[in-house]
């Protein structure tokens, strides 16, 4: 039976609690779409997307860059936050004001007033790119939430529990969706299924995900 959301062409309600501490704000970034993308162009001009290598020697299918006081990096030496972009040897581009305002206001709406990210990891998925189930625990204080912003092609996100073997729920994430992951959900296993090939009117064959963190 088609429900009212599907009849209206929507994936679900505007605000949805996915789990304790995990709040999906559908379409929350749409009003800032053009300024987010213009700011992103500036970041990528100074710190281009690159495919990094995991400590185990695998090249990631997701291409990444960062802005802010530090950037997440991986190489044969391990995962860490680095103050300098290893490609340029220079600091990462600063966090654009529109990024910071969206992240702090979305966090506050989800119950995390006072969240002040010092880095944004930018992930670029092309068709076939995926991210296998993992936990984010390279940040210094796991008491802070993470805010994620999805742009471009839709993806099927996998959201599991605190144990790798907990069966993950599948959550479709679309252009403009914002999710705040805090409290008991902060250490949940999560991943992204291989991106299906299609074209987004604004971003072409790409999905961009911004993840805002307090790393330092
Ligand atoms: C749940 N990125 O960069 S964003 C990552 O779509 C990452 O690019 C995915 O996982 C992406 O580490 C997912 C959603 C997300 C981010 C961090 C989380 C969900 C999370 C941390 C804890 C729990
Ligand atoms: Fe993650």
UniProtKB/TrEMBL annotation:
Swiss-Prot/TrEMBL cofactor(s): Fe(2+)
EC number: 1.14.11.33
Entry annotated with the keyword Ligase: no
Pfam families, per database record: 2OG-FeII_Oxy_2
Domain Fe2OG dioxygenase, chain residue ranges per copy: 116-216
Entry GO MF terms: broad specificity oxidative DNA demethylase activity
Superkingdom in the source lineage: Bacteria
UniProt source species: Labrys monachus
InterPro entries: Alkb, AlkB-like, AlkB-like_sf, Oxoglu/Fe-dep_dioxygenase_dom
Keywords: Dioxygenase, Iron, Metal-binding, Oxidoreductase
Name listed for the protein in its UniProt record: Alkylated DNA repair protein (DNA oxidative demethylase)
């Amino acid at each position: 039976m088609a429900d009212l959301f599907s009849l209206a062409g929507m994936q679900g309600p505007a605000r949805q609690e996915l789990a304790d501490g995990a709040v999906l704000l559908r379409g929350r970034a749409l009003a800032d779409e053009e300024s987010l993308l213009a700011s992103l162009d500036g970041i990528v001009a100074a710190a281009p997307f690159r495919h990094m290598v995991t400590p185990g020697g695998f090249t990631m299918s997701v291409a990444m860059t960062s802005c802010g006081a530090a950037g997440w990096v991986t190489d044969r030496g391990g995962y860490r936050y680095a103050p300098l972009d290893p490609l340029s040897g220079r600091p990462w581009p600063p966090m654009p004001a529109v990024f910071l305002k969206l992240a702090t206001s979305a966090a506050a709406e989800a119950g995390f007033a006072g969240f002040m990210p010092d880095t944004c990891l930018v992930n670029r998925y092309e068709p076939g790119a995926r991210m296998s189930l993992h936990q984010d625990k390279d940040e210094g204080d796991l008491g802070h939430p993470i805010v994620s912003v999805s742009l471009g092609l839709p993806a099927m996100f996998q959201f599991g529990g605190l144990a790798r073997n907990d069966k993950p729920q599948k959550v479709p994430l679309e252009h403009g969706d914002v999710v705040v992951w805090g409290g008991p959900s902060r250490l949940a296993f999560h991943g992204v299924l291989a991106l299906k090939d299609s074209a987004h009117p604004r971003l072409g064959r790409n999905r961009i995900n911004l993840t805002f963190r307090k790393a330092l």
